[in-house]
Structure formats: structure tokens, C-alpha cells
């Protein structure tokens, strides 16, 4: 395998994906049938398990009654959506959703990047690998478990406040103060997930030709300069890729986490679309309403994806899809 | 024993006689437990045997099991000594479509209901029951009940004046077999460590002020004597400030002591229907709680603490509000970590020496049959047998190991609404030697055995302590005082509630918490009431008024 | 780097190591806590008195687990699911990523397919229609219900497609000249060249399969078909008091509520396989990544 890889070694050309074969050989497109055939199994599975269930989206425009089913329930048009905006809470909920989701997206791009770049500096391979493994660990634990532990640590008589007390700070109502709680959500989410993106960044970092650093080093470039001039530009594609994919999550503020960590006193800073829909929809059986809000979310996410896609293409000349 | 207790005993004996009478005079054999008894068939040659079908009928159902369900060696949830026994006796064979535990069960059930994927028979909560009834998916059981219900079942339903059956009847049709919630669950008590009281020379609490004084003393006067300032006052419930049920650690008893009845519908002085959470009395109770919180008498973190049990189990709190059954779980754990603790339960009076309590709904679970199921009588037959099994078991029934009793296919209890009090009297009587064990119901005989086992070696058998202690001590206030029982006028869902209610409840819950925690001043209560009315409460109030007047 | 070995660089490096160690410590703290609880006495655990070292050390919880046949059964279901699901995900990912990595000039329908994928990634009919679908396909209680609905990991397809696009065109053209068809190119050229990327996306799908519990809960009717995470989820999630209020067995349930030591032990046992397997996978990653890095 190594041999084959060696054979294909070519001059450094980042973003080869841009080099579309412009000179027109359009006349003949070989293998079309094969390409369709390769996609076939996946497309069929998606048709069955994603597209067919989408008939359920019709509920969004209904006052869904289980007795009548999707084909018999009364149609109400956009009433479910307008009702949501009628609620005094809707503004707060949308604000919370956007704030938490965007903060998490940004933090989950930057923190792992910084961490990966730093970790990449570590020369002891075993140490590097161990740290990389360990920081990825929290990813495997569910929020149900972690929320239980966090709630314990962050109480006013919890370990964290007892430690702060030594420095004469606090006690801080981490979980009960609307000014603090959102940051606890963001921080704990980053803590849990940063190992995940770190792996992707490290993989990209490993792909950078070490000769580049050697050359830069010989030219007298320090670590900072090397990072700025070599590492970051070469990671640009990865960053843009991750960012664009994350945009699809812009309205996902993290249901599992919030649901397990919030309480009525911090609703005003942490109630998000998903938690709201869960309470109103699943717990109260307002299926049509819940579906409508979910659909609204999907539509906005779709628009944002298209938007960020064209931005990435226009300004970074980068095609993700 | 006081006079009241004695009269209750007489009543109890009468009821037991009555109940056993309808099992066709089998009482004599029933008492010779251990003797190889024959399967009890109805003596009279009536066309219908309420306890057995002529032919085997299969019924699909679903089952909620405990995650740590105990199962005898070699048995399974689907096929075990209980399922075999019940099938053999009744000719009704249950097949589980699925079984699950806790929240899983709830979610699966909701999904099945929403997808119309229902078993022939199942037990659901009131909301689901109403939803299914509204969807016209339930079999009308009116005639089946008339024809097949055993006399025993019919008599028990009369014990709460038909309230339960009313709840299960919609538009004149009986659409479910309801359970009967023991009224004892309504009376939230204040649990106090008597050993701490004695140590500090305090008297047991009778009023809200007493609770305040005790909580204060427990915080400041080092009741555990470890020289550290590490005890706290009252724990709270992290989900709600108060409920109409009176769950662990919520403040229902305090609200009731102010004459406030949150979460239920009642009439105000002028006969208008009002919502209990919006009354001036509720405001007063909230004011008291806010004052307590400010003084530090309530756990600073109560709104956030995931597991308030830790405070009690860890010996940090020696006073809390809770139902009679606290010893079943939490206090058993507390005893494990501190076997010297002496937990007692008391009732709290209002300013006039009256003991108020919002009564829990008469029924909370409903056994429903899917519309179109061919053999609804099979469900009724099973239920007859199940009820007899619990109330007046045959010798054969008694042979089954009680440990696994929750393996019965469908578990829906009906019984005397005053069961907790009566069971309290039974176990107390037996422990004090006024009753012999064979005068006890089988369930209480089991609890008595547990108690004796615990007493013989408290250290080894601490796990046996909870259930008998719950009846013995948790049931005590019900024997000591007469409660002023307050019922909700309306427990169903109105049209506007369907859409607005969850939002109004959120508003209520949020406001209550914020007032107690001092994030909002007490007077914010008034604007809450105005908001509540404006956001649909007014309309709902009208609808309830109409429904009540009907 | 040789020149930069000044004293300040050394201090800087030491600091770096310390920071890394601290971060690593906070990452394992919850697991250490859970392990400590799992070895502690029930009463201490219920009182919240256990932090990072067992109190009242005993093996009760683990003895319970060994005796619990359902737990071991679920474990095997999860293993089966990961193997089958991982294989299907792998196949779908490579089969779809390759044609999609062609330009629209090379493959006419490419963009239409791509948007179709994006659409399915963002829109979902919700859980009720899916439930009805799986039921009418007769897949309840079948392992296929756990692997087919998630058979196409669109996110992974996009990742791998991007990696494929990075593989030099010249290679492709050379292949075409030799008369190699797309199947040959994919399996003999692209896949071997993309092992690091494939390893990464495969890990994602393995972890995804290992950790997901919700589908197991709704599609499996009998507990013996539960995958491990579903089984654990139902044990660990404390029943809320409100759930209990409508439960006929509530008094008995109360007695069984807070067996935190047992629950902790079950979490530990569920995480251990990942802890054991992951470092090996990671090693393979790094080799793969180094291999892949040569290509540019």
C-alpha cells in the first residue's frame, strides 16, 4: 500500500477538488450507468426510511387527531406556526436557541482547533496519543449521566463552589442564575465534545508535510509564525468543512443536555425550541403543533445550509457538497 | 388504642366479613393455608363464573416492569409462576406485545397510542385514557361490567361512592375499569427525626410555626452533634413548588395549612369556580415560603438539586414534607446510613386547628379494552380474579411466593379508599398484640413478618424495615387527626386547556419558583394572576364553570 | 525545531504538558467518579458521599451484573449491531461517496443526488411515521430495525466524498486510459488511498451505533432484543416521581429507585469495551493518517 501511495506522490496542491476538468471532454461521459448503480442501494434505503416517513410532515398543517390519522384529521393551514409566535415565550425561546446553538458551534470549532494545534506540538508520541484518547472519552457518556454529575458539582454547596470559597469567591448559583447558566451549558458541551473535532483536526494536521515546518524553521520562523503561515492555512479547508456542516445544527441547541440540566428558574435563559416542543408535543400530545415547529426548524436549517454553502463557494472557493 | 381506632377496627372486621362472604363461603378453607386446596370454583351453578372463562381466551397486553424486576429461577416475564397460575385459574392468557420500565414505558406507550398500535387490553393514565376515549378507540364495557363483574368488585367500587366508576364513564358509557387511589396518598405529612427533637428538647410540630422553629433549630443547634455546622432545614422538590398530589419534598402540606389548594378547581366564597393556584391564600403560602427561603430554612439549592434524597439519606436534613410511603425507599436508605435515626410523621394544622388536604383524584389508572376486541369479558374475568387474589386469596393463591407478586400480567388495584389507615390499624394492632397475625390481610401478614424479621436483627434486615414502617408510622397521622378533605371540582381537560394548559402551567411553575427564590417580589403574584387569566386562564375558568354546572 | 530549544521554549513546553494533563484529568473525572460509586456501599452512594474513591468498598454491583443474563444478552445484541451496522454504513459510504466525488461534468445526475442527500439529512418526518413504517415492514424486534433506518450516514458520505475529491485527477485519468472502470477505481485505487478517512468515518458510525438507545427503545418490543445502551438507559434514568404517580406499583418501585452503585457499575461495563477497543483503532488511525499524508 505504501508503494502505491508513493507512486502517486505529486506536487503539493491543496484543494485539488477545485480543479474540475474544464477542457471540454463533455461529448462522452463514460460509466454513467455504473455511477447510478453505485448510488442505487443507498438511495433506495433513503427513499424507504427517510422519504416515506415524511408523509408525517403533513401533520404540521393539521389539528392531528389520532383517531382520524393523517388522512382524516382536519387541515388548519399554518395555524400551528402562527400559534407558536402568538405565545409570549416564542421570542425568548428563539433567542435562547440561536444564542446557545451559535455559541456552541463557534466554541466547538475554535476550542478543538486550539487544542489540536497545541497537542500537535507534543513530541512524546505515546503521551499525545493518550491525551487524544482521554479527551475523547466524555463523548461516550450520555447527557443523562453527565447531567447528574454536573448538577452535583455545581450546586452552591458543591465541590466547585467549595473550591472557589477558598479564593473568597462565590458562592455562585451556576445552575440557578440566568446570567450564568447558559455559559455552563456551552462550557459543558464543549468539554464533552471537543475531543471529537480534535480528532479531525489532528488528522488534518498529520497530513501536513513536515518538510514545510523544517523549511520554515530554517528560515527562522518561530512557532507562532509557523502556525499562522503554515498550519492554519492548511487547516482552512477542514475548518470550513466543519463549519458548514455545523450550520445545519444552528437550531439544535442540544436537547439532551438542556433537558437534563435545566429547571424552571432558568427556563428564561435555557428553554429552546426542542425542549419546548418536547413538553408541548410529546408530553401533551399536541402532535400537529410539535411537527409544525420541527418542520419550521428544518426549513430554516435548509435555507441556512444553502446560504453558507454559497458563501463558502463564493469567498473561499470551496465546494462542500 | 384510642376510641377512633377501635371503631375503625370494628368497621374493618365488618368489611372483611362482607368481602369474604361473596367468595362463596370459602373462608374456612382459606384460613387453612398450606392445606392442598382444590381450585375454588363458584359453588352455585350460575351460567357465568366470574372467575373463569369456559374456553381459553388469549388477550394481548403491555406491561410496565421494574428495571430490577425479580424473577424466579427459570421463569421469565412472559411465563412465570404468576402468569401460569392466573391462566390456569381463569382461562385468560395474556400475551405481551412488549414490556418496558419507567420513562421508557411511558414513551413507548405514547408512541403506540399515537400510531394506533394498541394491544387488546392495557392500563393507562388518565390523560391517555381520555385521549383514547376521545378517539373512539375504546370498547364500551358497560354491559360487560354489569354481567361479568364479581359481586366483590362491585361492592368495592361502592366504597368510594362510585367516584371511580364515574371517572371512567364518558357520555354514559363505561370505557375503562378504573383503579381506586388510596386516600392516604392525599395527606402529605411532615417527617421529622424524633431523636433530634428530643436532643434539642423540642416538641413535635403541630403548626406551620412549629415547623419553622424546628427547621431553624435543626440548622443552628447542631442536632447531629458532630460539632459542625452542616445541617440544613427543609429540602424541596426541584420540579415543582407544590402539587395537588403531595409528592416527596414539595410544599403541598404548607399550602393546605394556609387554606390554599393549588392545581385544583374549587369554589371561592361567592360560589364561583376558581383555580387553586391563583387564590389569595396561595399568595400567603408563597409569601411564607419566600420568607423561609430568605432565612435559609429551605435548602438553598432546592430548585436545582437533582436528588434531594441525598440530603435526607446523608443525614443533613431531619425534617421534610412527604407522603406516608416515604419509608419504602428514601428512608430505608437513610436508615442504612444511620440506623439510630427515629423518623416520625405528623400532620400540620391551619390557623384554626383544622387539618386540610387536597384529595388526590379517586382514580389515576385505567384498564382499557381496545374497541372491537371480541372478548372484553376475559379482561373482566381476570380482573375479578385479580381483585379476589389481592383481597381474599384462596389457599392456592396463597401458595405463590409474594416476592414476585408484581409479575401478574395486569396490576390494577381497587380496594378500600381508606386502605392505608386500615392497614395502619392492622399492623399496629398486631405489633401491640391486640390482633393475631391471622386476623390480618395476607398483605399485612407479609409486612408483619418483615417487621418481625427486622426487629429480630435490625442490622441484617434493614431492607425489610420500610414497608411495615410506612404503614405503622406513616399511617399514624391519619389515625390521629381528622382531615378536612378538599376535592377538585373538575379533573378532565377542556377545549382551551388542550392547547393552552401546558403553557399556563409553565407560567405558574416558573412564577412560583421565582417568588420563593426571591427573584420576584411577592407582589409579582398579582401580575401572574392577571397574565394567567389573559393567556387563556379566564376562558378555561369559564369552561370549567360550565362543565361543573352541567 | 532543533534551534528553538531555548530555555523559554523548554518552560513553554513544560507548561504545555501540564495544561494537557489537566485537561485530560477533567475529561476522565466523571468516569473515575462513576467507577468509585460502582465499588461503593449503597448507602454512601445514595447519600452522595462518594467522590473519586470508593467508600465502603464492595463488589456487590459487579456480582449482580455477572448474574444478570439480560445485561450480557444486550451486550451481545450491541456487538452484533455494531458489526452489522458498521459494515452496512461502510459499504453505503464508499459506494455513495465515489460517484458523488465526480464532477457534474463527469456524472450528470450528481447534483440532483447530492441535494437529495442534503434534504434527507435535514428533514425528517418524525418518530411516529417511522414507527408505523418499521411496524408495517415487520421489523419490530429485528436487528434490521436498528441498522437500516440509519444505513446511509449522509454526514460521513460528505466527509469521504471530500476526501475522494482530494485524490489527484491524474490518477483517475491514468486509470481511465488503462480501461479501468469505476468499480475497479473505487476498490483498487480510491479505497486503499483513503484508509485513514475511511477509518475515521467508520469509527463515527461504530460509536454512533454503540451509543444510540432511542431506536432500540421504540423498535424492540422485548427486552431481550434491547441493545446495551437501551438497556442501561432504562436502568439509569431515574423514574421521575410523576411517572411513578400513575404507576400501580409505585410503592414497590420506590424501594428499587436508588440503586446507584448498580447503575454506576453498568455504565462502567458499557464504557469499558469502548475504552479497550478505541486505543487500538486510534493506533490504526494514526498509521492510516500517516499513509494518507504521503499522497499530496
UniProtKB/TrEMBL annotation, chain A:
Taking the record's annotation, the residue ranges forming a coiled coil are: none
**Spans traversing the lipid bilayer:** 35-61, 98-122, 134-155, 194-213, 234-255, 287-312
Segments for region (Disordered): 1-28
Which cellular compartments is it found in? Answer: Cell membrane
Extract the PROSITE patterns matched here: ABC_TM1
Check the record and name the Pfam families matching this protein: BPD_transp_1
Q: What is its main location?
A: membrane
- What's the protein here called? Sugar ABC transporter permease
Residue ranges of the ABC transmembrane type-1 domain?
94-308
User: What keywords is this UniProt entry annotated with?
Assistant: Cell membrane, Membrane, Transmembrane, Transmembrane helix, Transport
Domain of life per record:
Bacteria
User: Which InterPro entries does the entry link to?
Assistant: ABC_transporter_permease, MetI-like, MetI-like_sf
Q: Which family does it belong to?
A: Belongs to the binding-protein-dependent transport system permease family.
Which SUPFAM superfamilies does this one have? MetI-like
Instruction: Specify the protein's topology with respect to the membrane.
Output: Multi-pass membrane protein
Q: Which organism is it from?
A: Paenibacillus cookii
UniProtKB/TrEMBL annotation, chain C:
Its placement in the membrane is given as:
Multi-pass membrane protein
Which residue numbers delimit the ABC transmembrane type-1 domain? 75-281
Q: Which InterPro entries match?
A: MetI-like, MetI-like_sf
Which domain of life does this protein belong to? Answer: Bacteria
Q: Where in the cell is it found?
A: Cell membrane
Where does the chain cross the membrane?
12-32, 82-100, 112-132, 144-164, 185-207, 264-281
This protein's UniProt keywords? Cell membrane, Membrane, Transmembrane, Transmembrane helix, Transport
PANTHER family, from UniProt? ABC TRANSPORTER PERMEASE PROTEIN MG189-RELATED-RELATED, POLYGALACTURONAN_RHAMNOGALACTURONAN TRANSPORT SYSTEM PERMEASE PROTEIN YTCP
Which family, according to the similarity comment?
Belongs to the binding-protein-dependent transport system permease family.
* UniProt-recorded name of the protein: ABC transporter permease
Amino acid at each position: 500500500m505504501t508503494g502505491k501511495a508513493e507512486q502517486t506522490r505529486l506536487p503539493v496542491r491543496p484543494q485539488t477538488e477545485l480543479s474540475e476538468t474544464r477542457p471540454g471532454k463533455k461529448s462522452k461521459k463514460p460509466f454513467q450507468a455504473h455511477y447510478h448503480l453505485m448510488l442505487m442501494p443507498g438511495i433506495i434505503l433513503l427513499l424507504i426510511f427517510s422519504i416515506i416517513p415524511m408523509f408525517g410532515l403533513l401533520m404540521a398543517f393539521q389539528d392531528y387527531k389520532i383517531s382520524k390519522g393523517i388522512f382524516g384529521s382536519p387541515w388548519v393551514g399554518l395555524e400551528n406556526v402562527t400559534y407558536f409566535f402568538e405565545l409570549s415565550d416564542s421570542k425568548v425561546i428563539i433567542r435562547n436557541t440561536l444564542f446557545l446553538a451559535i455559541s456552541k458551534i463557534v466554541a466547538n470549532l475554535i476550542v478543538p482547533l486550539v487544542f489540536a494545534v497545541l497537542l500537535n506540538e507534543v513530541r512524546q508520541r505515546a503521551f499525545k496519543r493518550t491525551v487524544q484518547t482521554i479527551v475523547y472519552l466524555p463523548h461516550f457518556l450520555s447527557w443523562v449521566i453527565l447531567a447528574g454529575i454536573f448538577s452535583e458539582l455545581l450546586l452552591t454547596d458543591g465541590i466547585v463552589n467549595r473550591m472557589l470559597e477558598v479564593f473568597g469567591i462565590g458562592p455562585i448559583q451556576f445552575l440557578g442564575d440566568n446570567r450564568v447558566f447558559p455559559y455552563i451549558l456551552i462550557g459543558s458541551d464543549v468539554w464533552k465534545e471537543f475531543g471529537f473535532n480534535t480528532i479531525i483536526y489532528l488528522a488534518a494536521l498529520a497530513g501536513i508535510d513536515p518538510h514545510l515546518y523544517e523549511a520554515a524553521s530554517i528560515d527562522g520562523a518561530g512557532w507562532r509564525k509557523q502556525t499562522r503561515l503554515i498550519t492554519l492555512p492548511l487547516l482552512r479547508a477542514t475548518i470550513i468543512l466543519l463549519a458548514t456542516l455545523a450550520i445545519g445544527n444552528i437550531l439544535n441547541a442540544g436537547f439532551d443536555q438542556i433537558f437534563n440540566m435545566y429547571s424552571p428558574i432558568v427556563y428564561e435563559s435555557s428553554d429552546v425550541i426542542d425542549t419546548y416542543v418536547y413538553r408541548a408535543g410529546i408530553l401533551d400530545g399536541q402532535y400537529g403543533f410539535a411537527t409544525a415547529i420541527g418542520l419550521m426548524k428544518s426549513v430554516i436549517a435548509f435555507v441556512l445550509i444553502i446560504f453558507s454553502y454559497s458563501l463558502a463557494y463564493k469567498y473561499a472557493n470551496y465546494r462542500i457538497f | 388504642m384510642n376510641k377512633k381506632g377501635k371503631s375503625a377496627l370494628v368497621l374493618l372486621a365488618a368489611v372483611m366479613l362482607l368481602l369474604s362472604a361473596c367468595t362463596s363461603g370459602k373462608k374456612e378453607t382459606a384460613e387453612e393455608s398450606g392445606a392442598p386446596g382444590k381450585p375454588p370454583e363458584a359453588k352455585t351453578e350460575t351460567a357465568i363464573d366470574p372467575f373463569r372463562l369456559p374456553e381459553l381466551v388469549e388477550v394481548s397486553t403491555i406491561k410496565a416492569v421494574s428495571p430490577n424486576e425479580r424473577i424466579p429461577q427459570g421463569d421469565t416475564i412472559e411465563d412465570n409462576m404468576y402468569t401460569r397460575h392466573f391462566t390456569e385459574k381463569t382461562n385468560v392468557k395474556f400475551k405481551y406485545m412488549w414490556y418496558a420500565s419507567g420513562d421508557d414505558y411511558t414513551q413507548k406507550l405514547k408512541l403506540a397510542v399515537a400510531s394506533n398500535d394498541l394491544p387488546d387490553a392495557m392500563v393507562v393514565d388518565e390523560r391517555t385514557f381520555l385521549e383514547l376515549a376521545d378517539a373512539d378507540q375504546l370498547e364500551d364495557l358497560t354491559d360487560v361490567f354489569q354481567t361479568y363483574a364479581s359481586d366483590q368488585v362491585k361492592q368495592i367500587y361502592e366504597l368510594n361512592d362510585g367516584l371511580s366508576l364515574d371517572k371512567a364513564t364518558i357520555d354514559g358509557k363505561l370505557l375503562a375499569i378504573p383503579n381506586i387511589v388510596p386516600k392516604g396518598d392525599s395527606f402529605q405529612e411532615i417527617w421529622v427525626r424524633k431523636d433530634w427533637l428530643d436532643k434539642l428538647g423540642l416538641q413535635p410540630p403541630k403548626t406551620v410555626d412549629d415547623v419553622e422553629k424546628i427547621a431553624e433549630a435543626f440548622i443552628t443547634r447542631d442536632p447531629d452533634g458532630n460539632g459542625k455546622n452542616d445541617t440544613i432545614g427543609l429540602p424541596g422538590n426541584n420540579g415543582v413548588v407544590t402539587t395537588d398530589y403531595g409528592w416527596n419534598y414539595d410544599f403541598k402540606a404548607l399550602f393546605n395549612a394556609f387554606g390554599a389548594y393549588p392545581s385544583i378547581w374549587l369554589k371561592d366564597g361567592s360560589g364561583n369556580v376558581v383555580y387553586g393556584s391563583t387564590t389569595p391564600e396561595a399568595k400567603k403560602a408563597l409569601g411564607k415560603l419566600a420568607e423561609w427561603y430568605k432565612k435559609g430554612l429551605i435548602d438553598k439549592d432546592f430548585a436545582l438539586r437533582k436528588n434531594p434524597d441525598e440530603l435526607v439519606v446523608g443525614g443533613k436534613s431531619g425534617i421534610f414534607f412527604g407522603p406516608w410511603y416515604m419509608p419504602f425507599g428514601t428512608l430505608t436508605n437513610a436508615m442504612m446510613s444511620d440506623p439510630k435515626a427515629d423518623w416520625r410523621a405528623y400532620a400540620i394544622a391551619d390557623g384554626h386547628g383544622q387539618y386540610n388536604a387536597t384529595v388526590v383524584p379517586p382514580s389515576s389508572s385505567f384498564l382499557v379494552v381496545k374497541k372491537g376486541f371480541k372478548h372484553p369479558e376475559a379482561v373482566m374475568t381476570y380482573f375479578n380474579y385479580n381483585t379476589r387474589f389481592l383481597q381474599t386469596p384462596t389457599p392456592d393463591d396463597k401458595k405463590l411466593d409474594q416476592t414476585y407478586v408484581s409479575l401478574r400480567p395486569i396490576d390494577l388495584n381497587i380496594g378500600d379508599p381508606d386502605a392505608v389507615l386500615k392497614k395502619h390499624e392492622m399492623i399496629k394492632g398486631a405489633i401491640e398484640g391486640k390482633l393475631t397475625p391471622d386476623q390480618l390481610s395476607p398483605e399485612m401478614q407479609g409486612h408483619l413478618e418483615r417487621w418481625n424479621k427486622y426487629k429480630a436483627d435490625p442490622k441484617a434486615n434493614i431492607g425489610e424495615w420500610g414497608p411495615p414502617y410506612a404503614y405503622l408510622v406513616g399511617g399514624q397521622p391519619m389515625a390521629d387527626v381528622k382531615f378536612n378533605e378538599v376535592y377538585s371540582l373538575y379533573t378532565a381537560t377542556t377545549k382551551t386547556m388542550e392547547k393552552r394548559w401546558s403553557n399556563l402551567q409553565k407560567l405558574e411553575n416558573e412564577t412560583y419558583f421565582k417568588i420563593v427564590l426571591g427573584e420576584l417580589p411577592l407582589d409579582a403574584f398579582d401580575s401572574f394572576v392577571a397574565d394567567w387569566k389573559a393567556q387563556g386562564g379566564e376562558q378555561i375558568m369559564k369552561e370549567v364553570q360550565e362543565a361543573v354546572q352541567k | 525545531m532543533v534551534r528553538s530549544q531555548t530555555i523559554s521554549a523548554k518552560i513553554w513546553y513544560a507548561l504545555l504538558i501540564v495544561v494537557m494533563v489537566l485537561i485530560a484529568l477533567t475529561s476522565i473525572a466523571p468516569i473515575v467518579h462513576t467507577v468509585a460509586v460502582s465499588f461503593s456501599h449503597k448507602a454512601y452512594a445514595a447519600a452522595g458521599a462518594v467522590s473519586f474513591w470508593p467508600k465502603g468498598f464492595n463488589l456487590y454491583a459487579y456480582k449482580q451484573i455477572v448474574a444478570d443474563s439480560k445485561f450480557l444478552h444486550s451486550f451481545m445484541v450491541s456487538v452484533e449491531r455494531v458489526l452489522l451496522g458498521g459494515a452496512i454504513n461502510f459499504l453505503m459510504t464508499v459506494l455513495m461517496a465515489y460517484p458523488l466525488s465526480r464532477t457534474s461534468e463527469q456524472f450528470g445526475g450528481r447534483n440532483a443526488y447530492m441535494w437529495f442527500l442534503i434534504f434527507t439529512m435535514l428533514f425528517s418526518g418524525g418518530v411516529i411515521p417511522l414507527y408505523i413504517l418499521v411496524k408495517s415492514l415487520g421489523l419490530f424486534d429485528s436487528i434490521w430495525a436498528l441498522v437500516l433506518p440509519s444505513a446511509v450516514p449522509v454526514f460521513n458520505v460528505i466527509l469521504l466524498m471530500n476526501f475522494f475529491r482530494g485524490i489527484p485527477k491524474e490518477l483517475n485519468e491514468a486509470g481511465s486510459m488503462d480501461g479501468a472502470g469505476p468499480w475497479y477505481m473505487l476498490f483498487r485505487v480510491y479505497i486503499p488511498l483513503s484508509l485513514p478517512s475511511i477509518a475515521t468515518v467508520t469509527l463515527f458510525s461504530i460509536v454512533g451505533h454503540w451509543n444510540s438507545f432511542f431506536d432500540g427503545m421504540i423498535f424492540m418490543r422485548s427486552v431481550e432484543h434491547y441493545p446495551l445502551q437501551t438497556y442501561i438507559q432504562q436502568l439509569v434514568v431515574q423514574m421521575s416521581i410523576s411517572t411513578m404517580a400513575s404507576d400501580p406499583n409505585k410503592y414497590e418501585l420506590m424501594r428499587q429507585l436508588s440503586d446507584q452503585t448498580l447503575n454506576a457499575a453498568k455504565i462502567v461495563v458499557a464504557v469499558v469495551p469502548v475504552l479497550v477497543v478505541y486505543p487500538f483503532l486510534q493506533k490504526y488511525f494514526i498509521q492510516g493518517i500517516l499513509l494518507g499524508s504521503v499522497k499530496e
